[in-house]
Amino acid sequence: MFNPSRLALARRRRGMTKIRLAKAIGLTPRSISGFETRSISPSSETIQALGLALGFPPDFFSGEDLVEPLKESASFRALTSMSAAERDTALAAGAIAFEVASWIGARFELPEPEIPDLRGSTPEAAAAALRSQWGLGELPVSNMIHLLESKGVRVFSLTQECKEVDAFSVWRGKVPFTFLNTMKSGERGRFDAAHELGHLTLHRHGGPGGRNAEIEADRFGAAFLMPEGSVLALGIRNPRVDQLVKLRKRWKVATIALTHRLNALGMITEWHYRHLCIEISRRGFRTSEPEGIPRETSQVLDKVFAALRQEGATKADVARELHLYPVDVEAVVFGLVISSIDGSGSGGSPTRRRPPNLRVV
What 3-state class would DSSP assign to 227? Predict the structure, then answer.
């Protein structure tokens, strides 16, 4: 049974307009609109053509409705400068990630969510409260993705078609999801993860909050990664850029992020802050850190794929069960898994008698 909503989602996932899709399969845009509104039923030949043009198996279009992140509930940065197509592509990719997450959740016991509702708190207070609740004290966070996963956050990658999107997070019922741009530097990726944690705990289900919400999430991220006590304890006064490059390694943050934090805590003058920002830009450290850290990867996804490999399961098997091609499964874990599962395979269905408990340490 043809499902029009899946056609619309597939089209958004590929960033295709109705006009472009219609031209690709030799029909009119009115026909595409008719397919998506149920007023016209496509023939089996047309469904084959749609699948070929959009890069989805024909049986993808006959499944049940997929749950897609709502734009009203997703925490996109710079929403005003993002095109509707970029936003829709990211949200449609999120729907694919939801399917992959559900598939994994049905076969593996994942950590339960432990993200408290801290709405109404200041970013600084919320970061301190969460650090206390999680027993982190003033210690640097060794790995942000591992920490999020250990607290029940499902972490996935933004697809390469969404490379202009920094990151976004959303709640699906009681389960928090964070989508990260895995093409960024390790330092930027850590801050993005902390920023999205701020959205999850400060703006729970609140949806886009405009510039103020982004500022709050930035302040939370900075306070969470660089707790006030540990920064003040260093007694930094009027540092040079070279000093900051060395000091930033303690918290695994970008040089500019540490500079912003020192300014926010009143440890440098406004004049010195501006001078440092100019010098950091002049040296090109806003885009590439000297001796940068490697990108963090997912412990949960790595363990899932390792377990599947032991069973002889492949990426193609997972994709087939979800009525997808392997490329879409790979896209939502790109950059998060050190060695992804093989794309070939016999097509067997991986099953388990007892779901294994994936412990994140």
Answer: coil
In this structure, what token pair is assigned to residue 306?
């390792």
What tokens appear for 360 in the block?
A: 């994140």
Residue at which a domain ends, from 243, 266, 282: 282
Residues making up the chain, counted from first to last: 361
Domain membership flag for residue 131 = no
From residue 322, how far is each of 52, 162, 325 by CA, in Å?
17, 22, 9
What domain count does the chain have? 2
Residue 353: pLDDT band with limits 50, 70, 90:
very low
Q: The domain that contains 34 carries what CATH number? A: 1.10.260.40
Domain hosting residue 249, numbered range: 228-282
Q: Looking at residue 269, what is its pLDDT? A: 93
SS3 string of 91-141? HHHHHHHHHHHHHHHCCCECCCCCCCCCCCCCHHHHHHHHHHHCCCCCCCC
Indicate the residue among 254, 282, 310 that finishes a domain.
Answer: 282
91 contacts 120 by C-beta, under 8 angstroms: no
Domain assignment present for residue 197? The answer is no
Q: Measure the CA dihedral 82/147/230/226, to 10°.
A: 0
Is 77 a residue whose pLDDT tops 50? yes
169 lies in some domain:
no
SS3 175: strand
Q: Which two tokens stand for residue 128?
A: 């301190």
Tens-digit pLDDT profile for residues 19-31: 999 999 999 999 9
Q: What is the pLDDT of residues 319-352, one digit of tens each?
A: 999 999 999 999 999 989 875 445 444 333 333 3
Mean pLDDT of the chain: 89
Residue 74 lies in a domain: no
C-alpha distance from residue 29 to each of 24, 38, 57, 150 (Å)? 11, 14, 22, 47
Nearest to 106 by CA among 354, 308, 329, 323: 354
